[in-house]
Specification:
Layout: E1 3-8, E2 15-16, E3 21-23, E4 29-31, E5 37-38, E6 43-48
Antiparallel strand pairs: 1-6, 2-5, 3-4
């Protein structure tokens, strides 16, 4: 099964999302790289593929 997640920043300020750990329903984990900034009104999309 392919899974994905989109993070959206609806604010007027940038936010640091580095080192967040995301996990699929199957237990697969992915860490957002350190220093990743989500700018105002921007998306960050992460896809997990089998």
């Amino acid at each position: 099964m392919n899974e994905w997640v989109a993070l959206y920043n609806p604010s007027n300020e940038s936010v640091d999302r580095g080192n967040w750990i995301l996990e699929t329903a199957d237990g697969e984990r992915e860490t957002i790289p350190e220093g990743t900034t989500l700018y105002p009104f921007a998306y960050y999309v992460l896809a997990f593929r089998n």
